[in-house]
Write a structure and sequence with these properties.
With 93 residues, the chain is mostly helical. 87% of the residues lie in helices and 0% in strands.
Length: 93
Amino acid sequence: MSMRASYEKKIQAQLDELRIDIEKLKTKAIQMETNLQLEYYTQIEELQLKLAAAEKKFELLRQVHDDSWETFKTDLEQSWKSLRELIKAITSP
């Protein structure tokens, strides 16, 4: 398996994991008090928008030629870092 294929597989797994995390947050939000639900749902919506943007970047990465995929890889990694930081901020007590 090439380095690029291995990287794409890794990113796909991380995006799948993030979708699962978002679903868990939605379940948690349902169990919260009403005033906290709105804040949680706002944060979840932001996560979903960032996830959609990361997925779009991932699709672009998969379509670019080998000579330019490193540029897309860097951009995707920045999006991924932002998503993970947001998840951490939401789930921290």
